Amino acid sequence: MSPTVESCPDQITDLHRSRFAELGYVAFENVLSGDEIGAARTALSEVTHSLIKQLEEGKAQLRQAPAGATRNYAGPRVVAEQGCAIHFESGIDPHALSPQEAEIRFRKLHDYDQSHPVFQGLVQHDRILGFLGQLIGQEMILKATMALSKPPFIGSEKPWHQDNAYFNWLPLELVGTCWIALDDATIDNGCMHLLEGQHLRGPLRHHHTIDCEIVSDRIDAKQAVPVELKAGGVLYFSALLPHQTPPNTSPDRRRALQFQYRGVEARQVTKEEFGTVFAEQDGSPASCALAHENG
Questions:
Q1: Over the stretch 44-99, which tens digit does the pLDDT of each residue have?
Q2: What's the CA dihedral at 220, 161, 40, 119 to 10 degrees?
Q3: In order of start, what are the domains of the chain with their CATH numbers?
């Protein structure tokens, strides 16, 4: 099955809103121009280099994973004073990396939107924030930022999950994600895979394996649709849509910016209250936090 990916429109139409409601996502190529892609890549390099230099100068902390951390959480992090952090795969020593090597080998960067003016602009971009708001039907507010990198050959799998499972914002349908390709995202280097329309099933139980993921008998991974995007393409999707990225088996790295937003009417609640809503039909809590507590 091939996804519907079209060139970026001038505006969101009723057809796009209908497709988003039915499938849980829309995807556009050419959302960012060549100059914008280049600026974002340069900004990402500058932020990662800065974090490693801060580590060398004692201005950032090296934090090892806690005992018992599962694979995707088992690597070290370099955390700056302002909260921006860079994560590496397990077994990598950030002290042994030059800034250039760190840029190639990092796994995830988060909370970086205030670390560079390019990102300050991108999170407010009319074709990113604006389009997602039109698809969801409400003005949106930035909730979190991540930069997701799959280094050549070692970039690990992100297993099947729903983004809502990590959060505690209600209503569930007022949370959405923009996934922005900075490199061509292909099946070989770990592009996004989706289960079309399955956001309509509601919350699915998650448990902890290499990561927090949907219990395997809740989904049929054979129904997955890979969404290959050229650099500058953007995938907009519901936080209830099951999605996954496979490992990078290619010699090409795959970088993506991920901006997560919530509607102005969304409210943050306790994990206990969230568990009563993000639950399966029998009432079983389905979120990552409660799945971890309940085994």
A1: 999 999 999 999 999 999 999 877 677 777 789 999 988 899 998 888 899 999 98
A2: 150
A3: 5-293 (2.60.120.620)
